[in-house]
Amino acid sequence: MGSRWGFNRTIGQMCGLLIITKNPMTANQIAESLSISRGNVSMGIKELQSWQLIKVQHIPGDRKEYYAPAGDIWDMANRVFEERKKREVEPTLSLLRDNLLDTASNEDELYAQKQMGEIHNLLETVTKWSSELQRLTPEQLNKLMKLGSGIGKVIDLKDKIFKKE
Predict the structure, then answer these.
(1) Collapsing DSSP states into helix, strand and coil, what is residue 69?
(2) For residues 77 and 72, what is the distance between their CA atoms, to the nearest angstrom?
(3) Kindly report the CA angle at 92 between 88 and 98, in degrees rounded to 5?
(4) Which DSSP symbol is given to 57?
(5) What is the tens place of the pLDDT at every residue in 59-96?
(6) Does residue 3 lie in a domain region?
(7) Closest-CA residue to 49 (of 83, 20, 22)
(8) Alpha-carbon torsion 82, 83, 85, 91, what sign?
(9) How confident is the model at residue 164 (pLDDT cuts 50, 70, 90)?
(10) Where are the alpha helices (DSSP H) in 3-72?
(11) What is the CATH number of the domain that holds 34?
């Protein structure tokens, strides 16, 4: 799962372990469970915290820090998506906007700007669509995903109904 979300193997393993473990775990427990160094766990914890995927919990009478997922799997997927958007999509959109404001001085630059414009429009559309998806509850998202290929059929039907002849 971690590599699909863009994390290295160790961070993916740590995140997965915390998701499937009922009780919060200490860094030492994580290191022992995954047979990785305590230093690796420490760096992984910092990375997972920077993504807001784990939270620290304290147990009364125990000075150790315990780590647990910061929400359910839907919350975590949403956070990963938001962070990816913030770290990757938004800077790309900004760069594309800046380049589109430049005046093309030849045919090659004009062609490049046209292509960048298409990339910009695609990213804008995906960003707006994803913002709408984030407003849905996990139950609504689940229903939407279960529609699967049925969405294409709905779009085809809409096109047939509203087709201008």
Answers:
(1) strand
(2) 9
(3) 155
(4) E
(5) 999 999 999 999 998 889 889 988 889 989 999 999 99
(6) no
(7) 83
(8) positive
(9) low
(10) 9-20, 27-34, 38-50
(11) 1.10.10.10
Residue 57 bridge partners (DSSP): 66
> For residues 51 and 76, is the Cβ–Cβ distance under 8 A?
no
Residue 106 carries which side chain, given as an amino acid letter?
A: N
Averaged pLDDT score across all residues of the chain: 90
Examine residue 137 and state whether it is found in any structural domain, yes or no. yes
Q: Provide the domain count of the chain.
A: 2
| Domain identity same for 97 and 155 | yes
40 in a structural domain: yes
C-alpha 83/C-alpha 138 separation (Å) is 19
Let me know whether 61 and 131 are in one domain: no
Sorting pLDDT into bands at 50, 70 and 90, what band is 2? low
Over the stretch 29-40, which tens digit does the pLDDT of each residue have? 999 999 999 999
Specify if 99 maps to a domain: yes
E strand intervals along the chain:
54-58, 65-69
Parent domain of 42 = 9-69
